[in-house]
Amino acid sequence: MTDLSATQGASRPWGKIALRWGLYVLLGLFALYYLVPLFVMVTTSLKSLDEIRSGSLIALPREVTFDAWAKAWSGACTGIQCEGLKPYMWNSILLAIPAVLISTVIGAMNGYVVAQWRFRGANIIFALLLFGCFIPFQVVLLPMAKMLGILGLAGSIPGLILVHVVYGLGFTTLFFRNYYVTIPAELVKAAKIDGAGFFRIFWSIFLPLSLPIIVVSVIWQFTQIWNDFLFGVSFSQAGTQPITVALNNIVNSTTGVKEYNVDMAAAIIAALPTLLVYVVAGKYFIRGLTAGSVKG
Amino acid sequence: MAPILDINNLYKSYGQTEILKDINVSIEKGDFLVLVGPSGCGKSTLLNCIAGLEPITGGQLNIAGQDMTNVSPKDRNIAMVFQSYALYPTMSVAKNITFGMKVRGVDKSVQDQKLAEVAKQLQIEKLLNRKPSQLSGGQRQRVAMGRALVRDPALFLFDEPLSNLDAKLRVEMRTEIKRLHQDLHASMVYVTHDQIEAMTLATKIVVMKDGIIQQIGTPAEIYRQPANLFVADFMGSPAMNLIPAKVSTDGNARRIEIARDGEAPLVLTDRRGVDLPKDVIIGLRPEDITDPGSRQGDNLELADVHVDVVEPAGADTYVVSRLGGKEVTARLQAETEVRPGARAQFAFDLGKATYFDPASGARLV
């Protein structure tokens, strides 16, 4: 890349530099546009209600206070209860971690079978799983409610886990299948001759290769499940509601005054875990999404 | 003693498509069997069938005297080297080689001892802690062979193991495989599309085309007495000259008349007294058309031929001319005086000639 710009830049250096700077300015503007709402959220959450009412929306806080954060965490009212987000955060963790792990493990297994152990009807099964990715949430609400009722899981966290696992399988299978088809079939043949069976090959050969795609699957599933509102609001009851539902309730439970600073703090708290996952594993995410396009 | 590999009436089809038709092959212990043929002839499929990686549609297969037709690959007492080497990418070289033993639950001390033996034999001791991605093509090839050797199987299977190497390394590894075969007295089945590899390595060659065995024989038999036009054309480089000719009888001798563009036909006499029909295709290897005087023989025929192209190849010079509507290659000495566009006298060694039926392609004599 540097070579390219050097050779081309030699003929028209000024035009080249202007173009480059124009590009940076444009990208900077986009980034700014994207970051302004976050800026407003953070600054508002650090202001007192008085300051919010008197000051400008984008002004920095004159006096930084974490009161709104404390209230959002443990004192804000969701309906008639005033315990803040804390208990719901715990619900979401209990929900998201098992759901992410289970859907990733089953997706890896599915992908391994569909990609490397061709059986009669494998393509149809895979097509059906793919089709599952495109079914809108709303369509499955009623049947899913019925099913959870039959299974006796209605309104429980295990029920929500089941819903998210089932809904996520299409995606995780697709991720792992596309990753595993790039692994040469001769590897499986060699392992078979070496005496390894179905699970041994998966465990010793495929899983150690899978870190990038596991990260993709985990980030994708975690973001989906953590941010989900519709399933959460439909299939939970008091005590099992995930954080997104609680956030909605906080914002909508007004006791006279609209506490923008608490709402903002609550929204940021609800978004922090996905942000954390992305920061920790983000570089693998990009790597995993592009895996297979280049020879490893 | 029972043959080490015995294949009887093997058929293989994918749906309606027959890939292998009525395959019968058998080799003894210590044989080096090479399956050779053009792409898509079914040679790799046959190897996979022997390995048990592909189920067969019909027929029966014995390895070391035991019926292995429906036995899973791991229980066939075989080892296989793949074209892409198929090394486990996340394991070190040592782990790659010992993986099979580990799966089988072989004692750790035995594993270490066998690993050391094989590593010494293949000179890869220094590479044992590396990952496959840190190895060159030739080194990967050695590791793949190490993984096979460590099993000490009844039968080694090689699926085009040298085709990913560059030309020089390929020749080196070819010699190495041959040496390994001699040292171990191992039985091997080797798939290649390279007829030179087939000739140099094999004790027995199977030439295949479209899923059908064309000929089974020693390299010399395949080379000197090809069963049909396909084998004659496929084996040997440059290929055998296959020239349409008319035959007439002159006492005990046969006059072979080859048409030429714009001049009188070339007439050669085969004095071996062979029975031939009127129309034949005569097969002459390039080395059987040479400089006059460079070859002794009681059936040498001298004739003048118009030279089209001269191709010096270092050790020899190949000269192409046109006879019977075909390009005919002669193999002359390197320092030949022959020039393109001129006429030159060639010696045709009719004592080495073979004849084919133009209709069926089968060899007559």
What does the model show?
The complex is a heterodimer of chains A (296) and B (365). Chain A has 14 helices and no strands. Chain A is flat and about 75 Å long. Chain A folds into two domains: 2-65, no CATH class; 86-289, MetI-like (MetI-like fold, Orthogonal Bundle). Chain A is mainly α. In chain A, helix 6 (122-133) packs across helix 8 and helix 11 (211-227) packs antiparallel against helix 14. With 365 residues, chain B is α+β, with helices and mostly antiparallel strands. Chain B has two domains: 5-234, P-loop containing nucleotide triphosphate hydrolases (Rossmann fold), CATH 3.40.50; 241-356, Nucleic acid-binding proteins (OB fold (Dihydrolipoamide Acetyltransferase, E2P)). Chain B has eight helices and 20 strands. Chain B has helices at 43-51, 93-103, 108-122, 137-149, 167-184, 195-201, 219-224, 229-234, and strands spanning 5-14, 17-27, 32-36, 58-63, 66-67, 78-81, 155-159, 188-192, 204-209, 212-217, 241-250, 253-260, 263-270, 279-284, 289-290, 300-312, 316-323, 326-333, 343-349, 354-356. In chain B, strands 6-7-8-3-9-10 form a six-stranded mixed sheet, sandwiched between helices. In chain B, a hairpin with a 2-residue loop joins strand 9 and strand 10. Chain B is elongated and about 75 Å long. Chain B starts with a strand and ends in a 9-residue tail after the last strand. The mean pLDDT of chain B is 92. The interface between A and B is medium-sized, with 17 and 24 residues.
Can you tell me the CATH class of the largest domain in chain B? Alpha Beta
Query: Terminal Cα separation of chain B, in Å?
Result: 34 Å
Strand order of the largest sheet of chain B: 6-7-8-3-9-10
Oligomeric state? heterodimer
Protein name (chain A): Multiple sugar transport system permease protein
Family (chain A): Belongs to the binding-protein-dependent transport system permease family.
Pfam family, one (chain A): BPD_transp_1
Main location (chain A): membrane
